[in-house]
Amino acid sequence: MDLDELKRFPDVDGPGLSASDAADRLILDEAGPLLATGAAGTVSVIDDAYGALTLGSGAKDVRVHQDLLTGERALTANAERLGADGITHLPLSPAVVDGSRIVLMRLPRSLDRLAEVAAQIAAHADPDVVVVAGGRIKHMTPQMNRVLREVFDRVDVSHARQKSRVLFARAPRREAAAVALAGWPRTEQHDGLTVAAHGGVFAGTRIDVGTRLLVSVLYDAVPAAATAVDLACGTGVVAAVLASARPDLRVTATDRSAAAVASARATADANGVADRVVVHRSDGLESFPDRSQDLIALNPPFHSDAALSTGIAHHLFTDAARALASGGELWCVWNSHLRYRGSLERIVGPTRQIARNAKFTVTASRRV
Question: Domain RlmG N-terminal, which positions (predicted)?
């Protein structure tokens, strides 16, 4: 198929953002001989961005795991438009790779994400599985080979093409993989707060500087609020802090990342607030009615895949403006050089500075 036909929708679009790239093409070409003899139901695809690997493979009855909900929806939309079927979306679990003989995947930039995914494959795929994992060379490191060798006996490397490369992993080490899987999610203590993280979630078990600044001023945000949302929640630090500090607050955490949602649930559980924090995998605030929320807290991402993009932040600002009740506020932390205040004033409403340090600014934007 022509990968140029693929679309990113409903994910953000813009300059430098595409639905496929040279790494997708190299993965498919290197996997070609394997796919030509692969039986239906024996191919799994992990972290396909928008469907290039799944649809380009030509395989039947493919099981797919994509971390991002927007990527999952883009694959579904592309498949419907191109008349493809036989695709099953699954969480990162034994079911997605059980008995698979071929696994196609994009190499994540996070070594932790690679370690968790590789352990899942090695523990549950067919003993003769071949993992064909590729990416752009600028995002690959020799440590990726080391991570794969922890749970596979053999790792080979392809020739480079168009600044892309593929790693092949074979001969899974079942016992080592089972031990590795038992270590997820990882946890770390921070001044009485336990942060739980699955592989690939922003900041992992750390609390990044921006989030630290945001939570330091959130305790008195919108004192009369009955509801609060941790938007783009990551590991759910903000949700856990709000639920712990304000027991009467109904807190919801949302993220489009499956790993983030699993991490936020684990963080809430580790801090004894799982009964007061509801976690949703969703694209922004799509599950919330208009004018329904009193307080929204946001540390917006500024990457889409590997590309810098402010499109996600502006999408989330617009969603927050829709979901905020009259008098409700969006408390947002952002890299000061991004100068979001003007956008927040225009999209949400009157905006005031709450805190600032050498790198980050926290603002509160009021919905009128």
Answer: 5-171
pLDDT band at residue 307 under the 50/70/90 scheme: very low
pLDDT for position 308: 44
Token pair for 43: 């191919």
Q: Which of 65-79, 166-180, 214-228, 302-316 has the least mean pLDDT?
A: 302-316
Decide the pairing of beta strands 164-172 and 193-197: unpaired
Indicate if the pLDDT at residue 303 is higher than 80.
no
Residue 181's contacts (CB-CB under 8 Å, 6 or more residues apart) are 116, 119, 120, 123
pLDDT at 305: 47
Q: Please provide the DSSP assignment of 40-76 as one string.
A: TT-EEEES-SSSHHHHHH--SSEEEE-SBHHHHHHHH
**Where does the pLDDT of residue 304 fall: very low under 50, low under 70, confident under 90, or very high at 90 and above?**
very low
Counting the structural domains of the chain, the total is 2
Alpha helices in 157-302 (DSSP H): 174-181, 209-217, 237-245, 258-270
Task: Give the HSE-up count for residue 147: Cα atoms under 13 Å, Cβ half-sphere.
Answer: 23
Coil, helix or strand at residue 323: helix
| Token digits of residue 207 | 């609390």
What end-to-end distance do the CA atoms of the chain give, in Å?
Answer: 50
Helix (H/G/I), strand (E/B), else coil: 39: coil
Provide the CATH number for the domain around residue 199: 3.40.50.150
pTM for the whole structure: 0.95
In this structure, the answer to whether residues 87 and 142 fall within a common structural domain is: yes
pLDDT of residue 310: 65
pLDDT digits (tens, 9 = 90+) for 235-284: 999 999 999 999 999 999 999 999 999 999 999 999 999 999 999 999 99
- Residue 203 is part of which domain span? 186-366
* Residue 63 buriedness (CB in 10 A; 0-12 / 13-18 / 19+): buried
**168 shares a domain with 104:** yes
Please tell me whether residues 100 and 205 are part of one structural domain. Answer: no
